[in-house]
User: Fold this.
Amino acid sequence: MNRRRLLLSLAPALAAPAWLARVWAATIPRASAVPGGVARIGLGASERAPRARLGGSRVLVMREGDAWVALVGIALAAKPGSRLRVEAEHAGGRHLRFVIDVIPKAYGSQSLKVPPDQVDLSTQDLARHERERAHLDDVLRTFTDSPPATLAMLQPAAGQRLSTFGLRRYFNDQARNPHAGMDIAAPAGTPVIAANAGRVIDSGDYFFLGRTVVLDHGQGLLSLYAHLEASDTSVAQPVSAGTPIGKVGATGRATGPHLHFSVYLNAVAVDPAIFLQP
Ligand SMILES: [Zn+2]
Assistant:
């Protein structure tokens, strides 16, 4: 016991002791029905997992104690005050309907300066970006049935987490899509690890995201790592939480080396912070 205590006190601050990790894992994700948040819906008890849908998309359903719970990703573009309709079906045909009232959340804005040809794209770059957008949209719609063992995620690179999720962005004073991930400040070459166990479903080099890896953790929970300097993964490769998948870089449209980390649920980007230890 004494020896164990000593080891714990020597452990770096980021490596929480196992008991603490279990305590916070049980509270993740921190649910909140805001744009970019996750809504939690109790589906009741039944022997087999019910299926739940938001519009055409399956949503994540997991066991929680004796009952089932749906965790629904809410798009950043969802209008506060709007209502999202979720339908669930238990094995045996019992149907349930739920409504999520989207509550407001104020996100800030961010102005960035990048080379002009990364904002006003040439015809060629625009065509490339549109091809890549269509491909990534397909990748991000991935839904596999086996549920994640945990929803708690590891911070995928050592460094300061920047509160950049959801920021309205202006590149060279032109409005662009809100920022769909969390940036982690880290020098080029810093190891990047898988935030959760899963399987590599995409690995590519994209116009905006640069070198990118996407992992499938099951039931529509995905994580994406972008602007990598290098990646050493191949599609279909299984990974454990903590498996090295690449190195921090500044590829694609990046103002300097950092890790762009996104988390997706039912094909929408949600705030990665709600899956990480505070
Ligand atoms: Zn980013």
User: Anything to note?
Assistant: Residues 25 and 152 are 5 Å apart (CA to CA). The first strand starts at residue 38 and ends at 44.
